[in-house]
Amino acid sequence: MREQKASMRETKTPAVHASPMTQPAWSETASGVGRILAAALGMALFLSLINAFGTDVIPFVMRFVYWSALMLAGSLVAVGVDRVGLKVVRHRLHLEGRPWLYGIVLTALLTPSISLVVWAITPLFGHMRWDIALYARFLAPVGIISAAMTTLNVLINREPQQSHAFSAPPTASSADGTDAARVAFRERLPFKHQKADIYALSAEDHYLRVHTSAGNTLILMRLYDAIRELEGIEGSQTHRSWWVARDAIEDIRRQDGRVSLTLRGDIEAPVSRSYQKVLKADGWI
Question: According to the UniProt entry, where is the signal peptide (predicted)?
């Protein structure tokens, strides 16, 4: 086990998975946009089959064309809102690593904008006039569909947050021997912890408990932000509230379908189900 860890420390090639901080948002990748457009067509077919919101007066083919136009146009609006609108508020509202809060905010932003799209398209398929009363009628049904699509988007694009892409490349050391790649996070720690080995981080409300070879300490910081400053230490989130350094792992415990990691310093770190698959694929557990 120790020999294997030593060989891993000597490896300089990057790990397979990128960290969430280096990965673009779903709306900035072709695969992410492609998945949501495919889901939009699937939702259009479903809404056509159930004659949603009184559209049974339209023949099926035209009904599917109608719903496809609305869902695809709405998805493109969602891409624009996510790229532009959410970029402004994502950090202020602490949406990183909180997919359901992100979904609520995205739905709130999408409903009025997509309602405008529906208001523009719907009269082309029926005997309606473009007026403000028609726009108001669309807000509730558009809100329901936007919430459903946003939930689907969160589920199909969600990936466990990883940081073990941070393999340590050769870096220049400062005069006092401190690794330059790690200094950003270490400078936040009390003096006696700054040169200690970092075993794990665990979130406690707005604070972060840093477990090191010199003991543990609390700092005011979010786990998501801390992971961004851990480049150079091979590690990964194992739980919504835990990040673990790979070299700190001494044992893996399995009991009743639950997995936990025993770390140096007699620390027990939980592994939630959402992280088990990725960690297993990478040979962690």
Answer: none
Given a contact cutoff of 8 angstroms between Cβ atoms, the answer to whether 208 and 215 are in contact is no
In the sheet that holds 207-212, the strands lie side by side as 215-220, 207-212, 198-204, 242-245, 235-239
pTM: 0.48
Phi, psi of 229 (to 5 degrees): -105, 10
**Nearest partner of 198 among 209, 207, 34, 206, judged by Cα:** 209
Burial state string for 211-248 with b = 16 or more CB within 10 A and e = fewer than 16: bbebeebeeebebbebbbbbbbbbbbbbbebbbbbbbb
pLDDT tens by residue, the chain, 285 residues: 433 443 333 333 333 333 333 345 556 667 767 878 888 899 899 989 998 888 888 889 999 999 999 989 888 888 888 777 676 676 666 666 567 787 888 888 889 999 998 898 888 887 677 888 888 988 999 899 888 888 877 776 655 555 554 444 444 444 444 444 445 788 899 999 998 999 999 999 889 999 999 999 999 998 888 888 887 788 888 988 899 999 999 999 998 888 999 999 999 999 988 788 778 877 888
Query: In terms of DSSP bridges, do strands 198-204 and 242-245 run parallel, antiparallel, or are they unpaired?
Result: antiparallel
Residue type, 247: D
Tell me the CB-side half-sphere exposure of residue 203, using CA atoms within 13 A.
17
φ/ψ region of 4 (left if φ > 0, alpha if ψ in -120 to 50, else beta) reads alpha
Which one, of 229, 237, 227, 232, lies nearest residue 274 by Cα? 237
Sheet of strand 267-271, all strands in order from the earlier edge strand to the far edge: 249-255, 258-263, 267-271
**Do residues 110 and 152 touch, judged by C-beta distance below 8 A?**
no
